[in-house]
Write a structure and sequence with these properties.
The protein has nine helices and eight strands. By secondary structure, the protein is α/β, with parallel strands linked by helices. Helix 3 runs parallel beside helix 4, helix 4 runs parallel beside helix 5 and helix 4 crosses helix 9. The longest helix is centred in the middle third of the chain and has 22 residues.
Length: 281
């Protein structure tokens, strides 16, 4: 399930966007919207059947045949393999949308030794972005207004102690915002942005305590299409109209909470994350 960049294809000169977490929800809605705008899109997802179904939806809706890449962000070797396949397929990725996310119901340590939420939501996209950074023109990172979690770069597994699903998720979302800001400072050849999509009707968080209440209010929540609007906006706006490294809500700049704006914390997180995934910082 690898994409292949065929130089003879008349699509080769079009803009390319890679969307992670694209099997459903915000990622799939964004892929459809971007394909409608004329982008080539590549979808990344964990489950092969759902990924194929997402590809068919993009094709049926837009006529665009997306390329599909399977990877499980709970396994860092999968991320490394994904980066290799993307590098083999594409000389340039105009936009890398780091949208994949999860929230574990119970404390889980991955095969790599990390708390699963911080790995899937931060360490995996951090690694993927670093392995592709020389080919990427723009990063868009799906964060959340729920980014007030405690974040200690010296202990990325702190969430395993007295585990709380929302606490672990909030910590990972703070990491997302700090990562985008630090990427913009370190990588001067690209631009990077984070954003809050709103509270969206997706499969995300299913099975968590309070799910009955979530389901009751689901009709009042945003559609995935509405939630994807800021991602699409950040992916397509001229860079001169955006604040590099900034956090956004509802297609506007927005100030992140507290330490999510701390450049010293962002730099510490970068160094700790690089050490955790085994790359040079």
């Amino acid at each position: 399930m690898n994409g292949v960049n065929d130089p003879s294809d008349d699509s080769a000169g079009r803009r390319l966007t890679v969307v992670t977490g694209a099997s459903s929800g915000i990622g799939l809605a964004a892929a459809v919207a971007l394909a409608r705008r004329g982008d080539r899109v590549a979808l990344v997802g964990r489950d092969p059947d759902r990924l194929r179904a997402a590809g068919e939806k993009v094709h049926d809706t837009t006529g665009e045949r997306p390329e599909l890449f399977r990877a499980d962000f709970a396994v860092l070797d999968d991320v490394r393999g994904l980066a290799e396949r993307l590098r083999a397929a594409y000389d340039r990725i105009d936009v890398l949308a780091n949208n994949a996310g999860m929230m574990a119901q119970q404390p889980v340590r991955t095969v790599d030794g990390f708390e699963s939420t911080i790995q899937a939501n931060h360490l995996a996209p951090f690694l993927l972005s670093n392995l592709l950074s020389d080919r990427v023109g723009r990063l868009v990172v799906t964060a959340s207004r729920m980014h007030r979690g405690d974040l200690d770069p010296d202990d990325l597994n702190a969430g395993l102690n007295r585990y709380r699903p929302m606490g672990a998720y909030a910590t990972s979302k703070r990491a997302n915002i700090l990562f985008a800001a630090e990427a913009a400072r370190r990588w001067t050849h690209l631009t990077a942005y984070s954003y809050h999509p709103g509270v969206v009707r997706t499969r995300f968080g299913s099975g968590l305590p309070g799910q009955d209440l979530w389901t009751r209010y689901m009709p009042l929540l945003r559609t995935p299409e509405k939630g994807a609007e800021t991602l699409v906006w950040l992916a397509t706006q001229e860079a001169t109209k955006l604040t590099n490294g900034g956090y956004h809500r509802d297609q506007r700049p927005h100030r992140a909470h507290g330490k999510a704006t701390d450049p010293a914390l962002a730099a510490r997180l970068w160094e700790a994350s690089a050490k955790a995934v085994g790359i040079d910082s």
